[in-house]
Amino acid sequence: MRAVLGSVKRLLIQTLLTKASFRDSLFNIMTFSNKVNHWSHHMLPCAPDTVYTALSWIHSISCSPGRDLLAALSLALADPACHAVHLLTVDLPDQQEAVLRALPALAAGRPVNVLYLQDSGGQLDSNTRDYLQCLTQATRGSCYVITDILNGKLGKVIPLHVAESQSSVPINQVSPVKYCCPSASVLIPQHNTSSPLLRCSLDHPLRPFTSCVLSGRTLGGAEFFPGCRVLARREVDGLYYLGTVMQQVQGRAGVWVVDFDHSPGAVLGLVSSQRQLVCSLDMVNHVRDHTRCLLPGDAVLSPWEPDLRRYGPGRVMAATERRDGFGADGVTSLRVLMWNGRVSLVPVSLVLPIFATSL
């Protein structure tokens, strides 16, 4: 777990930020090893402000020995507001038989969904596969294996067992959660099942699980047309880049060809085409509404690196004003706390508000 802990934290933060835009659920976070730690004593509303208060706690998660899943599930499912649990794990739990015996009564009809991290190059042995399936079937949950973990980065997501109620729903659309992951384990309870945590990807429907994604509802009712400038999500890393809409794909409503200004290859060391098919939910018009001033606490889409090419979700911490006595007074830059914990000072013209329909 230690090798991918950074990626797990980023995934958790991205998922919560996406879910928070809907303001329709509750959540909590727990970690477990030989003891259980919880972020909150009870479930809290999954809203942008609440998620941002959890960031420092998430960043403080560390690895320690032990896999007391039974204690973690007992505490998580004791909260009547918890409607489901997402368990992120790298190994089978201690007291395996005891967990299976106790789980149906503990869950009381609430699904426990498992996300199992598999080492790069390793094979999932039959005993592990059988146990994971038993664990999820006991609560009518689903199980997914995340493979090809290289250099601390999460890879492909493969469904191992999908509950009947989710048979047509990929991993990017699982909902209410309490997350757990052992040895640096994360348990997140959530309350609502109505809206997806993550969205589908055109080429790799399971890949956005490791991507930075935003709900189309949070970006407003954007209209797109050939020639318009957009921020669009790239498949290569799930982040947003500037580009130009070229054309709509015939016979595929809401799917566009986007020509990106820059290839992410220089940043990521990858070969990637300048053009990509992008669904409208993964684009936002690059037009800033200058009638609305951004204030501390506002959720935004912002660059954070020196080259200002990649955009991700963040929250305004403070505004810097210029007062030169020549009529140029006003905010010139914003200090933004990004989803990955970094703080950047960004020109105000490059920062776009998000979650506008929800706040």
TrEMBL record:
<feature type="domain" description="DUF4537">
    <location>
        <begin position="228"/>
        <end position="353"/>
    </location>
</feature>
<protein>
    <submittedName>
        <fullName>Uncharacterized protein C11orf16 homolog</fullName>
    </submittedName>
</protein>
<dbReference type="InterPro" id="IPR032770">
    <property type="entry name" value="DUF4537"/>
</dbReference>
<dbReference type="Pfam" id="PF15057">
    <property type="entry name" value="DUF4537"/>
</dbReference>
